[in-house]
Structures
1.
Amino acid sequence: MINVKDFYNTLKENNLDFFCGVPDSLLKDFCAYITDNVEPTKNIITANEGNAIAFAAGHYLATGNPGVVYMQNSGLGNCINPLLSLTDEEVYKIPLLMLIGWRGEPNVKDEPQHIKQGKVTDKILNACSIEYEILPLELNQALDTLLKACKYIKENKKPFAIIIKKGTFEKYQLKNAKTNNFELTREDAIKQAAKIIDSNSVIISTTGQISRELYEYRESLQQPHNKDFLTVGSMGHASSIAAGIAIENPQKNVYCFDGDGAFIMHMGALPVIAELNLKNFKHIVFNNEAHDSVGAQPTSADKIDFEKLAKSCGYKESFSVDKEKDLEKALSDLAKVQGPALLEIKVKCGARKDLGRPKEKPQENKESFMSFLEENVSYTDKNSLKNISKILKQYNTKNILLFTGKTSYEHIKKEIEKELKGFNFSIYNDITPNPKAEDIDFALNKLKNYDFIIAVGGGSVIDFAKLFRFCFDNKITTKEALNQNNAIKKTPLMAIPTTAGTGAEATKFAVVYVKGKKHSFEHKYILPDFAIINGVLVKDNPKYLKACCAADALCQAIESYWSVNSTKESKYYAKCAMELCSEYIEKYINKSDEDAAHKMALAAFLSGKAINISKTTAAHALSYKITTDYKIPHGHAVALSIAGLMKVNEQAENINDVRGKEYLKNTISEIKSILKIKDIDNYFDSLFQKIGLEMNLQKLGITNIEDIVSSVNQERLKNNPVLLTNKDLNKLFKI
């Protein structure tokens, strides 16, 4: 290992006494030494690495002596322009020495954002015609390499790079570390910010400890990470990523969690973002006045008035807070105001020594985040109906097409039309259970010139509206829609369920019957843009209808949890749905309890979100024939096989899930734990008896099980975690 004092003295003896750059964890001991031993005008921590090249060039022009630029290899991207258009021998021919920390060195474990940088560090330097050496770990050899570099840049008047491996320098503790007296820790501030942000919003967090602390917060609550884009690299660009997302998702608030060093690095993005006038863009800067994760080297953030800066760049609102007692109000104010808006939170330096790192790969984070962006905006509190008029006003709505059930609408008409007061709307209710293509096409020919569609009803009404909107926007028939790949979405669609079961308001699927044959149509533009969930709308349904719908919500959640397509996110939604069902299903059906009704409406919505990711499995596949031939409602039909299917899956034979036998056994064990199941048959027999669902097929008039089994939806069977034979399927039902 190399003593940093010896390294520095060698540079100084060769008249290389001007330093600038962006601190790096591999160079932190050297950077700490020069911070303690070099006057501030001779050691400049720059906004970005390109700035450092320019500073070094200015120093050379003024003194004739080369400068030393320190950086992580990721900073090479910021350097290329000034290296090639300023210091290059074919332009101004300006010498400088680059000290580059080699993150992502091949065959050395590192974070994912560094892997590619490590592989191409030498290739970038070669492409820029910059000579380089890898610094040896032995002191005398290292000093020889350094002397060679000093001689090269002076003789050739060209840049030279020294690549520095992890563990090259001996430890040096910064003595003159800047400290602040802020009372908030960054981790606590991040927790409070993430907690207050509504469930429809997303967070783009900058690279380093901010993303790690946000990840740890979600882990502590066993929440999925799909609402957070953890920017593991691209320092300084999180705000621009967030703005790009905000443009395309105007109904979701987009929060950027930034650090002061990252903020300063590409501060030029601020006026560009401000000019876009993004009402949904919220910028939070956690300012500890330091590059915290790379040695706590100071930034210039202590000299910046973030409130005035944001306002001068065109942000609509800006706030600053440095005390815990003021943070909650500041975060609440940020959530309420129209963006672009900025909140500076002044925090202490430092982080937990045991701070973890994301377990998922960046690509996995990207995929789950993009899936969440496709989910609709939902309002699920007990005052959710008040959002109807707010949304309509945001869209400057002129003509509303309101799809409703023929009879179900009457008992909730007052609540809905109260929110539609002052808006022009037309009601269409010629909708039968299980939407038919010809009925949708009839409506398409009849209904014209609407700029907003609202569906108020059960699964059939919502599916009808979903398919209608798709065809309406694309000027096609229902049959043509089944083969439509290139589609547009123009007319906003709001779904307001009046049953607590299907979760149709949360899915990109819709069922339609073409000439008596059932089709399940899937497209991202089938998903409603908004979902309004409210227990008032489902509380007074007939008891049998409530039981059928509740059974559907419960079975969907169970099937989603064990589906071969399940993800961390879908399992989270399914778990929440099962927990709500377990606690509230009997109270909802047997006592007409308003709170229980709201919780079951939420359970149905969450089960819909779960199957929107994972799809359903064998119980649903078996249900369709039962509903069609025996007129048994869908939820009741699904419930008939769920206990038998759980037992078959628990045996974990003929595994169909690549995650394997142990994974499946653990999954079934988790379901049983969530629902407090000790004996599968007893649990479901007791539950369905209490809510009034008959499970015996003969009593329901079903005698031909083979016919049901032979007609099963094979695609849904593929989602089941075990491969099922016809013999297995026959055993699922109680005769």
2.
Amino acid sequence: MDLSPAPSFKTSIRYRFLKGICFILFISTCLLSGTLAYNVDSMLQESLTSKGRSLATNIVKRNENAMMISGNTRLENVLTELITDEEIAYTTIADNQGKLLTSQFESINYNWPGLNEILPKLPKGIDLPDILEALKKDGYVREISLPIMLGVDLMGKVTIGLSETRIREQITKTVLFVVALNLIIALVLGTALFIATKKIILDPIVVLSRATSRLAAGHLLSKVDIKSSGEIQMLADSFNEMAENLNTTTVSKKYVDNIINSMMDSLVVLSPENQIVLVNPATCRLLGYDAQELIGKPLEKIFYNGEADCKALFDEILIKGFVNNMDTSYRTKDGKKVLMLFSGSLITEGSMVSGISCVAIDITEQERMRDELLKLDKLESVGALAGGLAHDFNNLLQGVFGYISLAKMKSASDGEVYKMLEHAEKALNLSTNLTQQLLTFSKGGEPIKKVVQLPLIITHSVRLALSGSNIDCQFTIDDPLWPVEADEGQLSQVMQNMVINASDAMPTGGTIHIVVRNISNDENALPLIQAGKYVLINIEDSGEGIPEEYIKKIFDPYFTTKEKGNGLGLAASFSIVKKHGGIIEVQSELGEGATFSIYLPASEKNISPAIQEESMLQTGSGKILVMDDDEIIRTMSESMLSTLGFRVELAVNGEEALAKYAQAMASGRVYDGVILDLTIKGGMGGKETIAKLIELDPGVRAIVSSGYSEDPVMANFHEYGFQAALAKPFPLAKLSEILQKLM
């Protein structure tokens, strides 16, 4: 469909061509008519001149004798026979002195048609010479004169005035005829020429002109259907080919432009001189520039280390032709560092290098996530070793705890031995803190969660950690604070570790600022945690700060810069917070101190009631089956249970425990309770054993015990069929409390 407006007729090529033809025909007609009129005039003038000379010659001959008469003799009736011709206006004879020898009557041809138009206009009494002059001027009269000779003597002359009226009339008729004929011929030829030219040349040109206008207006599918030959057909074919190529090129360019504009990664195109010639919107968004601020600038402008990084990459690209996935850094407009994964390659045209294409991916968040994963990997790599060590160590501690508890029972409470046993028990409690930290790294360790009063845990833990130090602490806590579901003991351990770390950063004293507030992450402002509600705990110190090279290592197990320390405090805190669904971040600059930020998910549950005071040591009665693969634990458990008044039977593994339980049921001596160790080396552990015991006796009352105090079975013992959980090492009072609840 032709959408281009048609030009006006006066501006069209048809009108200009038609006007040109008409002008050419007009000029040719004028030239032809003028030439013909000139030729006819020449011919008629020659004829008239010949006629006049003939008449003049005749008059001369007839008047030679008369001229020999005396000068006083007038010539009368000499011209009577000669002046009757309508082309002769007058005839005169003059002597050698120029004196007219003929009268007015003899000289003027009164039969000449033009005389009637001139004589009435002349004044009366006018002389013959004046009359002749008027006839020459107004009558288109042409004079022909011949001398009258007598021998060699000039006797006079004969003058004949010939009228050119007939010549003019003849020329006019001839010119009119020629013009009319020429116009008819020109009209026929012009029309034929215009029609032929219009069909062969003008119409194809008009079609091409309109198609060109459509093409210029953006209709890239415009084509012309012209059937011609020669240059016109070549022009039409070339136009169609050009339109097709332009459409392909333009569509491809738009497609490429759309791809470039929709890219999420940074694209920068350089000239061979290392000048930026193109940047995509993603680059501008990332760096905070407008495109015009970067176009024409050197590549160093966007690199964080400027020429140092840029030159190395640029040289490598020129040598190899490309670089792939190189770690580097860009600099934003406000000077911030952005970690980038850079790739670049040469743009070539034949053997010439026309530019360099640079694509870079913002890997800032990926690097943060990778650091987090590396921390987790390190924690997991320690987990297997830490879990086994803690389990075995807890088993050993259990024996010591048990014997100390029994020894205390057999000692006077005011005696020296009793006090020494208490000191030993406190030392063992410190040992359990170390195993607790090791267990934090063990695989599958789950906190035993409940909704806690976070402000109480924070303030109590902080004051306990800072007791006796020169460090002050200021609290700012939102009221009300959203509840948090957490393991109270683990969370207390985190706060103590964080505060001890902050106090170590201020050896000369100072103030720790702890801010606890509610925050929402509904718009994923914090990319490392999911959207939702969180409680943020900021621990800010005014120490010397953490060097940049240590920031990524402070949560690594066994990494420490302290002379006294095992490098487990921050690592354990990181693992605990991670298992609570939160994160820990740190911000620090040298000389500006450090701020640790802990994000814990808020809970919709109500806060659990306050913990009841620990009950007094109570005895009981009944028969208990103890399953444990450690002989020390079995012996100690038997002694502790016997002290509490229970009868005890022992089993090494699950198979033996099942056999004894079945035998007791068969004999009617059912056990009042069973204590099953969760992990049995080379045998059936507590998890598998309880499942089979329930099959034997759905009413079995079982306690799960383990040195892996954070095992999922320990945290969710009800789900596996147990009624209670007893973490090793446990004192006699804890065993008494659990049995009282169970029995």
3.
Amino acid sequence: MRFDVEAYKRRSREHFEKAWHEGLAVLTPPPFGDQYPRLTYQGATPHPIFEMVNRLRETYLLLGFSEACNPIIVEEQDVYRQFGPEASAVLDRVFYLGGLDRPNQGIGREELEGIARITGKAVEPAAEERLREILQQYKKSAIDGDDLIHATSDALRIDDGQTVEIYEKVFSAFRELVPRSSRSTLRSHMTSGWFLTLSAIWEKRPHPIRLFSVDRCFRREQEEGPTRLMSYHSASCVIAGEDVTNEEGKAVAQALLSAFGYTDFRFRPDEKRSKYYMPDSQTEVYARHPVHDWVEVATFGMYSPSALAEYGIGIPVMNLGLGVERLAMIAYGSQDIRQLTYPQFQPRLLTDLEIARAVTVREEPRSIEGRVLARAISRTAREHAAAAGPCSFVAYEGPLNGVQVRVTVEEQEAGAKLCGPACGNEVYVHQGAVLGIPDTPQWAKVREEGVPAGISYLDAVSSFAAARIEEGARCRRPVQVQVKMAKLPSDINLRIAEYAMRFITDQKKKVDVRGPVFFAARSEVMEGQS
């Protein structure tokens, strides 16, 4: 069920443990029977980036490359080993890993009094000594952070909620912790990992060694933009062997990218000239695509013997890599890598068709007989819509929830028609707006260009009437339903899903279903029959 997020934030700040335990109250009890194994799941839509990752993995495997998992954490000294003197200039683009030192928390009179205020009892000498041991063991990493709260609770014989409050309000050393950077970095490109992997295996496997990895890299950009992310995926491969040359890069590029519809290739020297590549070997790959023309899609080159020697690797190595997000942008026609990768943080534009799918009736009958009744009411009202009142027409006579009922559509006011002018309106979505419109020349353009929701006002109110009559039949009581002027969707038994309504509001579009409906239906239980 929905819950008040502000209220829960306030509760958590006032007493975290109590709010945590009360969290179970927001769960909606499922109806009996709507539980596993009757709950089922069906296929859904993959994320475009991971769809591209899967396609690249399958292609590499088909080309005879084995999959590798390269280290993500790379020590700073490895960056120097790979880049040489250039390292100091490129280290500004890597993320350094930091952590918290384990505090040296003492136990004095102030702490003991603070604990007593929270627990309502004095700390016994044995418990005090045990608590000192726990804090020392934590400082020396003999106790993990995951076990600290439980161990403290056990020593003081209190619940975890009180222990959390003690660490938050009494143990000041834990509140004053400041992260400290290490010399470990997150890899900024897959090459950092390839040197480590090849160093461990190059003498232990037959040559040539063909490996690939499609995985995440991290680069400390000045800012993210339409074509740059700080966290991206690299689809990288290496071929290592005594006879390997840069021609392997051309062959792999063509074989790999042909699977994605690229038909022709150009290879150009890369002006960046990274020092971990041999001179004049770093090459950019441009490929012709039937839709996108010439596109830069990959880079390859031969690792420098200077860098390889730092890792004891004594054979030539060709490396090729391409950005998964760049390839996905081309494949999906995206202009902004941020929107393609993180659509949840970008305004999602709904099509008229998607909005139309979000328009449904609020109440509808549950039984088959009730659905038959709804259609009978709609059909009868439509056939006699122009009849002048007072008038009444039998729409249905038969069983409903185990009883016999008679349902009529009626108009009691003299001179008024059975159905108001808006009963024939239909719901359309046009340029993001939800409109209830009649079939007239004035609205011909909306009907031609818009998307019908498949619901007329008469269908919606007939469903409402049938649902209420079905409920009344269950209790053997007559029901009268009236719908007069429509101002809101709920007035004619319509619901617009919240996500679609939010989009309509954010885009400053409108929902206009106003109109004179003037519809009435009545049921009576036919006693003595069942």
4.
Amino acid sequence: MTPEQMRDASLLELFSLEAEAQTLVLSAGLLALERDPTQADYLESCMRAAHSLKGAARIVGVDAGVRVAHVMEDYLVSAQEGRLYLRPEHIDALLQGTDLLTRIATPDNAPPPADIDAYVVLMGRLLEHMAAAPMAPPMAELQLEPLTPKVEPPVPVATEAPQAEPAEPEPKTKRTTESGERVLRVTAERLNSLLDLSSKSLVETQRLKPHLATMQRLKRMQSNGLRALENLNVHLKDHPLSLEAREALGDARRLLAESQQLLVEKNAELDEFAWHASQRAQVLYDTALACRMRPFADVLSGQVRMVRDLGRNLGKQVRLEIEGETTQVDRDVLEKLEAPLTHLLRNAVDHGIETPEQRRLAGKPEEGLIRLRASHQAGLLVLELSDDGNGVDLEKLRHNIVERQLSPVETAAQLSEEELLTFLFLPGFSLRDTVTEVSGRGVGLDAVQHMVRQLRGAVALEQTAGEGSRFHLEVPLTLSVVRSLVVEVGDEAYAFPLAHIERMCDLAPEDIVQVEGRQHFWHEGRHVGLVAASQLLHRPASQNSAQTLKVVVIREREAIYGVAVERFIGERTLVVLPLDERLGKVQDISAGALLDDGSVVLIVDVEDMLRSVDKLLNTGRLERIARHANQAVEAARKRILVVDDSLTVRELQRKLLLNRGYDVAVAVDGMDGWNALRSEDFDLLITDIDMPRMDGIELVSLLRRDNRLQSLPVMVVSYKDREEDRRRGLDAGADYYLAKASFHDDALLDAVVELIGGART
């Protein structure tokens, strides 16, 4: 490439950057002018943007850019001079020119010359109509032949008198922000590397803290040694010592005192160095992190225009108001937010905002309003998108649910508003009867929910009939840093993101209850399942003998569980370190991080962990958590397993046996009972016969064939009271048969005592 070609390539790149900035000014200004065409400041900024683009295009030799920018400038000057009153159709034409300029500045997407010619002719004819009449005709009349130039040639640029134009701007060699700061282009990979190095630097400085603590301890030990030597010297004064011994003692005292003084000085220097190093590392990390943060407005560059254009296509008047444009968000989050926001905005325009006639009849302004608000809350980016439309037709939604066979009529009639709205997020669900270019395929809200979940966030919908809808989104401010609770499981550190933690608590043994054969505890008016983190993460079970159980309550939408851990280490802000791609998806783990001391911590994937809990529940392999505080007591109590598919019968038998002092576990069917028998030790099995998955006869038969369990006493409690049923149960291996028809408290308890004796060993 020749030096001249290199210079041209550099200028074209600068022109692309110039066009990117100026077309944003044009788009924002034109949309503002559509609401109030008389705003002189917006007219001035748009005219200057078009003029600057014309000059920049002329310098780099992009004739198409010169022609388009020139006719747009003429148009805007006419509006400034009062010869043209801008109407929506005129804004359409100017926005069309803005789009052309964007394409012209993108080498891979440059429009063909025919499109440029057609646009220049179109704008020229529009100016002619403007000269013939005070108000320009509707643009629709002029767009019948948009791409076929008439015989009249476009106005040649060369006929323009050079002195009539202001001086062209010099080509920019630097990009600057609004505050005048220089802007450099840095690759995302290099920025990620910088953030990674700065985070490791911050961690390394934290490792000085334990080293400094050790040095302080050494100083105290040396001080104690010096005092001990002084005491020895005092005691030896009353004893005769040789001259050599006294000199040796003096030398030891002197050397120890000198080393003590040196250690004090160096400790002070090390302390100061550690403090300054940690401060500089923190500033370095904060600065590197700030490089990744971008204002929320960066994702909104085309959204205002999109809402406006879509509203016009649908015959609606819609305005988008945005709050919190300067809210700082990680650039990776911004990129992934663009698609969900576009879906929600299109949904609001298409489904939410009514036509001007409908709004007028409802007593609303003809122009619909969509509000988008961004803010920071507790380390999260909170987005609220609301409209003043008609809301969701709940009865139509209920009808569609039944029609699509997603719920029976009786159940659908009893669904609450919140439950009904969750159906809108199902794949393929839509309230549109026909498919249009905008909607009807049922992929909008499903895609929104999927993409928000990928960002480890959540989305919720609220609505008020006749007044509008509101979407509430919460996503992390950054994917590179996560605020977490660090816990210990199996002598290793794991981190739970705070965004998914409902609460932390210490459970006393009496707070843990058995329901449906599984351990639960009471939380905010509901039973919450309790699971062991050691089982989920495949770590050895803890041998801790603490009096209480440390529990992290995690929630993902409606799913909520308590996860028992060994110890709470504390809250930390962790720099996310992605796992090696060669590992693939690690179950229940999303990433890694480094703690202050340099040790590794794994960050839990809460959504994946909840799926693992559901899988264990469905397969009946969920282990029982030992309650350490009363392990000694339970070891001295006899344990009974009650297997029955009736909740009422299970609870009745469990309470009777508990009141008599036995330790009782329950299972919901034969399969669940068989899994419990293989994983735990019991002194007695009480089982029903008729149960799903595995009946009582099969359960007893399996038990009698197992070498470890064949001697376990078995009692059958069944509604069947016929002799052949009794004989069938006893033949299978049961030791006692009790009919529920003749069931009463004493009969059951007496039979238990007869089989295994009292509750205590």
